[in-house]
Specification:
single chain; alpha/beta; Enolase-like, domain 1; TIM Barrel; 2 domains; 8-stranded mixed β-barrel; 3-stranded antiparallel beta sheet; 42% helix; 18% strand; globular; binds 2-phosphoglyceric acid; binds magnesium ion; glycolysis
């Protein structure tokens, strides 16, 4: 019923104005799915390889499309994704590009769902999926690789942990984003926005912590539920061995100092979430920090694990982190992302489904998060390519997809 009859690929715009790959998958019985690949700026060294969009499309047309059309069923995700791996023939999708692979993989899932008439989250998660929804982590202040002349820490994320529903959580994050703006205005700190729609003022990290504390407290009082906050340090971008450690605007921190610094921040601000607090090669540092604060906060590996089961397995062995960021384009297919989620869940690691800094209106990750009972989703707070996912979550909760 879901035999693939055509795969069409094209270049479309992403939110940074760069070309990215969009895929359409068509099947017998009129099935149709469309999806587009996102793109990172602070990419991990061990991610699957994104090729220039035009090249990825040319390679996929030559090598992948003939192995899909008339050969695989969109309703059988493993079959589709195996064919993509065979077509690619490398370990890191450098053959056809992880951008082509992930766009086709996600479009196939949507095509499979469309034939059965089930919403994508149910197609992916099964009919016995639980009734949980992820808490959205909303990026409201940011810098690092996502904005020039702003904070050293890449993302300050609102975490509305007490929200009674997804929609209330989403509106709370938007309110925190608005409150941050008001506080910045009061302080006479004008701010543009970074790649993900977060405010990118020219302030130091210390001031950003003060503002986050104030903004989350103010909005929590207004809405009447608990709002905490967290970070994506994106520390691999700061780490410079020759400089002796983590290079901040005002100083360099050694690995030990970095672990202490982050542990102190967790204690001082009761942080709910800390992503990539250490370099992507430093399992040991991650393990040290997890030992110190892992009972109180989520220590999450993004560049550390890159959605890869081998790297996650190593982290589990060493006790590095207690949660994993899931970005399908880091690994190339939905099947590989599901494998990483399964391994995480089996080992009591939390999983956080995530957007990239370069995004499109594609909302697949909202369905992926709901399908897999993810405790958290990280997909911004405002901006159209972010609200595409957030509004889809609202629709899913409202049974309207
Ligand atoms: O580091 C991250 O977690 C992401 C998304 O916020 O950024 P990028 O897509 O640039 O890697
Ligand atoms: Mg990150």
């Amino acid at each position: 019923m879901t035999l693939v009859t055509d795969v069409r690929l094209r270049r479309v715009l992403d939110s940074r104005g760069n070309p990215t790959v969009e895929a359409d998958v068509l099947t017998e019985e009129g099935g149709f799915g469309r999806a587009a690949a996102p793109s990172g700026a602070s990419t991990g060294e061990y991610e699957a390889i994104e090729l220039p969009a035009a090249e990825a499309i040319a390679k996929a047309r030559e090598d992948a499309v003939p192995r899909l059309v008339g050969e695989v069923h969109a309703g059988n995700q493993r079959e589709v994704d195996r064919a993509l791996h065979v077509a690619d023939g490398t370990e890191d999708f450098s053959g056809i590009g992880a951008n082509s692979a992930v766009a086709i993989s996600m479009a196939a899932a949507k095509a499979g769902a469309s034939v059965t008439g089930a919403p994508l989250y149910q197609h992916l998660g099964g009919t016995f999926r639980g009734n949980n929804y992820p808490i959205p982590l909303g990026n409201v202040i940011g810098g690092g690789e996502h904005a020039a002349d702003a904070t050293d820490i890449q993302e300050f994320l609102a975490a509305p942990v007490g929200a009674p529903s997804v929609s209330e959580a989403i509106f709370a994050n938007a309110a925190v984003h608005g409150e941050v703006h008001d506080i910045l205005m009061e302080r006479d700190e004008p701010a543009g926005k970074g790649d993900e729609g977060a405010w990118a003022p020219s302030i130091d990290d210390e001031e950003a912590f003060e503002i986050m504390d104030e903004a989350t407290t103010t909005v929590a009082d207004e809405v009447g539920f608990e709002i905490r906050f967290g970070l994506d340090v994106a520390a691999a971008e700061m780490y410079d061995e020759a400089e002796g450690g983590y290079v901040y605007s005002d100083r360099v921190r050694s690995t030990e100092e970095q672990v202490e610094y982050i542990a102190d921040l967790v204690a001082e601000y009761d942080l709910k979430y800390v992503e990539d607090p250490l370099d992507e090669d430093d399992y040991e540092g991650f393990a040290d920090l997890t030992e110190k604060v892992g009972d109180r906060t989520l220590v999450c590996g993004d560049d550390l694990f890159v959605t890869n089961t081998d790297r996650l397995g190593e982290g589990i062995q060493q006790g590095a982190a207690n949660s994993i960021l899931i970005k399908p384009n880091q690994i190339g297919t939905l099947s590989d992302a599901f494998d990483a989620i399964e391994l995480a869940v089996e080992n009591a690691y939390g999983h956080v489904v995530s957007h990239r800094s370069g995004e499109t209106e594609d909302a697949t990750i909202a369905h992926l998060a709901v399908a897999t009972d993810a405790p958290f989703i990280k997909t911004g707070a405002v901006a159209g390519e972010r609200t595409a996912k957030l509004n889809e979550l609202i629709r899913i909760e409202d049974n309207a997809v």
